[in-house]
Amino acid sequence: MKKPSVYVTRMIPAACLDALRAHCEVDVNPDDRALTPDELMQHVRGRDAIISLLTDRIDGAVLDAAGPQCRIVANYAVGFNNFDLAAATERNVILTNTPGVLDDATATLTFTLLLATARRITESERFVRQGKWEGWAPMAFVGLDVDRQTLGIAGLGRIGKNVARKAAAFDMKIIYSDVRRDPDFEAAVNATYVDKATLLAESDFLTLHVPLLPETKHYIGAAELRQMKKTAVLINASRGPVVDEAALVQALRDKTIWGAGLDVFENEPALAPGLAELDNVVIVPHIASATTETRLKMGEIAVRNILNVLQGGQPDTCVNPDVLRQPVGAGA
Ligand SMILES: NC(=O)c1ccc[n+]([C@@H]2O[C@H](COP(=O)([O-])OP(=O)(O)OC[C@H]3O[C@@H](n4cnc5c(N)ncnc54)[C@H](O)[C@@H]3O)[C@@H](O)[C@H]2O)c1
Prior knowledge:
single chain, binds nicotinamide-adenine-dinucleotide, alpha/beta, seven-stranded parallel beta sheet, Rossmann fold
């Protein structure tokens, strides 16, 4: 019997591809770059399943290009704002993500950004490398304390909770805002549920862990930045458009807030004009889940979902569950 055909839009760990190749014909984008939308349309044609990245927009046009035999698109990410959920459900295509396995890595990177920003790590490292250091100085690179400060968390989901647990090591006071309350977790880490205005006004460090949705686009803009403390630090390891990056550049320039640590950007890989010139921002290139173990586990979930579905079973982590209630073969 002919093996099903799977397309992988960019290289993922070899062990994951081997597991897939045991049951499927697999083609992988050979170039170490994201596909253009046109290339994506060409390469998905006739595939039974696709492993996509957060940089691949999976909409009705792409699914139509793939064809009606395509059963599943497995995102190699927990965030799935690159998916058109309705278009996939309409076409009876299952969409999946990789929740849970990247919580530790993402929360650790969040804390890395928080500490690096507070203690001016990248700025002072640049200074040393540039040969400018002339010895210990009482007023040089004075930063912020982290211990016992107030950590504000926007979006207390899997990653937000992991960050909250890590903050306990610094004896931080935790406040959070979310569309849902979690009283059990509040009790476990001594966190306080607050409204957005209080979150903005009281956080010494504000970290964002909401998904990118129409209602979270520019969750932080010029008005919100003005409501924050002048000594506050903003951390974003969620999705770039959650922050109005141009407004953030202005706020960092004007010292409306003290600093920022960013893993994600509004128009990746481009940065808002002026951002890279600022010393009070720590910038890394969307690496929150980039550890060997985590990337392997993300691939394992994507592969398991694909094999389950192609063998007539259910995926573990479906993000458009309505599709599972439709009979196989329904949809266009
Ligand atoms: N930088 C990276 O590489 C990286 C890695 C992993 C995840 N992420 C991002 O982090 C996000 C969160 O991941 P997660 O696994 O914790 O997701 P999750 O679904 O477990 O948590 C999201 C939380 O945000 C809350 N929320 C939703 N809409 C909200 C709103 N309008 N206002 C306030 N709260 C709201 C939800 O109720 C939930 O508690 C992902 O969607 C993804 O975009 C980024």
